[in-house]
Amino acid sequence: MNIYNSKQYKILDVIKQTGDNTLLRIKCDLNPMPGQFVNVSIPGIGEAPISSASYNDKLLDLNVRIVGNVTKAMTQLKKGDEIGLRGPYGNGFPMKELKGKDLVLVGGGCGVAPLRGIIEYVDLHWKDYKDVYMFFGYRTPGDILFKDEISGWNDKYKVFLSVDQEVGANPFNCPVGFVTDNLKENKVPSNAVALMCGPPIMMTKTTEILKEKGLTEKQLYVSLERHMKCCTGKCGHCMVHGQYVCLDGPVFTYDEVKNLDE
Amino acid sequence: MGKVLEKEGLHNFILSLQKHGLLIAPVTTDMTRFKVLEAGDKVELNNNPFFPLKKYFLPNEEPVLKIKNGLTKEPKLKEPKKIIFGARLCDINGLAILDKLYLDQRFVDETYKKRRENTTVIGLNCLNPPSENCFCGSMGLQKEGYDLLFHERELDYYIDVLTKKGAKLVKHLRSEEFDFPLPKTDKKLDPKDLWPFMADKFWEKDNDLCVSCQRCTILCPTCFCFDLHDDVNPATKSGDRLRTIDSCHSPDFTQVAGGHVFRAKRLQRYRHRVMHKLQFFKDKFDRSMCTGCGRCIDYCHSKIDFVKTINEDFK
User: Fold this and answer.
1) Which end of chain A, N or C, is less surrounded by CB atoms within 10 Å?
2) B67 touches chain A (CB under 8 A)
3) pLDDT per position as a tens digit, A65-108
4) Distances (CA, A) of A260 to B161, B172, B263, B285
5) How many structural domains are present in chain A?
6) Chain B nearest CA to A69, separation (Å)
7) Do residues B288 and B256 both lie within one domain?
């Protein structure tokens, strides 16, 4: 098997989540761990690494925001089409090591998508974890992802949503402010672990706040963004300080990456 | 156990290799290059070729997949048997370093593997460094990566035999036990942990001279970074997914969707390359990724000598 080749999988549904986010539901048995990613192939256009937004041995959800040609082509696919995937790649969040802990999930925008994989994992392994705190921030109420699932999450977990700006209807009554404001104002146990994905500024601020709340740098997990091309530790594009984000990451403890001055 | 070949037998030995596959050796025209040996070519025994050995295992551009009717298909592997004579230990150790990545058990690159299997590498030990910028004597080269290695002595060549593939080619020769010396160089890189020298000030002098021309990465025996991109005919929608040589010196090398570039400054890119060669790889694999061939200094547009800078200024 050529390591650069992908297999074809059937698209079961294409769900437009927000103005620029689309969820592809794919019949797929790759079953990535939360935080792992697959490389999506659109022959003739190229490949793009996309994080799994699910934890399921029969389905794979990929949330796609149009940021380039591959993601644009992905959103033009229709139910019943096939899509090329290879993977899963990367280490993912260390769910087994985190058994018995409170989990604090911090996500900004489409950075929430990989964290949804954690939620689905915990749904299946709820006995293994204590409380789950979710701090998810979006630009506007219209940008909120997985809207249909929020009431279900509210029943089981502690959900804190926020929006940067209140534009249009605000059905979840989200406070206006950054995800970090919500985090600052609410209590989380100091022995919890935080798992985050979002823009670098969000991760930096989140880290500062959580350290003030008594969490150490080893209790903070971040998912790094790089353009993985080969996804197999060869092409060099995702390397930072000798770490291949595709193989050694994309999840690192804050302690491991805090000094990654390029 | 090695073998011995009398000096006057060398020419015939090289020609006899042609019956085992495509014979490649250094030949000098305007400069010395590896090439497929043709009638009339004279094998160059003194210079290290301009372009390193890696091109026979990782060509500058090749399709990793064929694209047809919107699907990718694996191209048929047709790898002719090759025999490369006259490679230097810096390039050969470079292959051993590339093996660590391309033959990584988790993700074996089958094309690279096939080429390694179908190629017999016959090295030529350096008695004198081919360039004043050679510093392999300080880079911990090892007796590995080749099938046979020729070491010139006063009257004959001692041939170190590492593999069965190599042994077959010299089974008719007389055996001898001899511990041949590794090449020595006047130029040396002082062994240093480079982590304490990450601050910009240590890199500014060389970076001011660098023009990001990428010659150092193109000519490095172990620089292997590549891009993957699709090249299709818009009318037929058929074409290739290509692997093309890339360089960490390129400004868009670390660009992600949306346009952000992680190493936007040239200094960051310059530092990344040197650190990868001398520190990052060593942290993971316990050996330097640089084999001291000196090409990146010899052919640098601005004559940047990072060995001198590290030796003299990294204090």
Assistant:
1) N
2) yes
3) 998 999 999 999 999 999 999 999 999 999 999 999 999 999 99
4) 44, 57, 11, 20
5) 2
6) 9
7) yes
